[in-house]
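INFO  loader      accepted 1 record
INFO  loader      residues=314
INFO  predictor   begin
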Amino acid sequence: MEKTYFLGIDGGGSKCKARLEDADGNFLGEYVSGPANPMRDYELAMTSLKDVIAGVFATANLNIDNAANTHAVMGLAGLNIPCCLTKMSQWQHPFATLQLTTDLHIACVGAHERTSGAIVIIGTGSSGLVCEEGRQLEYGGHGFSLGDKGSGAWFGAESIRYALETIDKLQPSSRFTVKLIESLDCQSAQNIVEVFAQASPAQFAQYAPLLFDYADLKDPVAVKIVKEGSLYINQLCQQLLQKKPQGLSLIGGLSDKVAPWLTPEIQAQITPALNSPEVGAVLIARQQQALEKNNQHSHLNSQQKTGTPIPDNK
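INFO  predictor   done
INFO  writer      dumping tokens
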């Protein structure tokens, strides 16, 4: 008898991560690949997804053909945009079943181990979600060019913008801006613009940790930028808490750095995430498969009770 597997994939602006489990809930393997935001770069996202799928089966010492016995859930950044979801839905995937949803959705389910709750993601991008009674209410997450304030990409871009203004003598310099300009390894403002004019959000986000390091040292420029971004995250949390969710968690690589800059009132209502987003994706896959089995069982019972002939599949 063929074994059944469950696969969860979390895809964002910097990377995607896959987790594979068997039907009994045993962990089989994880694998990390490149960016997987199909709204920003569909071809790159598909390359990363195919790579992470092949990688996780290889890590689990399983042939990729086992994808045909696998129930998968992918939570990807950008799938809240209808045209992006439509395009991804046309993919001829190799799985027994595939459910597409957002990275926010799987993160929320993973964080709370239930279908209700709220999360704020603070990674390369930023956004918030409340899941209650089957509804998903999203806030923020409008992409780097239009939103994502308080995210790694925003913090990095704001830092570089400020550094350019110090070079132009429009803003006072600080230890942070001096260190940032050194780390950029650019000889002039024009050189910085040349390097970053077409930069991805992930490229900007790599400078966020340096910003927070100097903010912790009370550098005035770093503190100013961190406070502005954290104020937005604080407002996002307030908006989510108005819905009275069953828990609020912060998710993402910068969540631990931003949390201390939030108000004490907000900090007091934050609970640690129980699981990572890819675990949430696996939980959704299992829930969906259990629901389908129950529906099939109910349909068979209904046929037997009403005398409807049951098809013979022999």
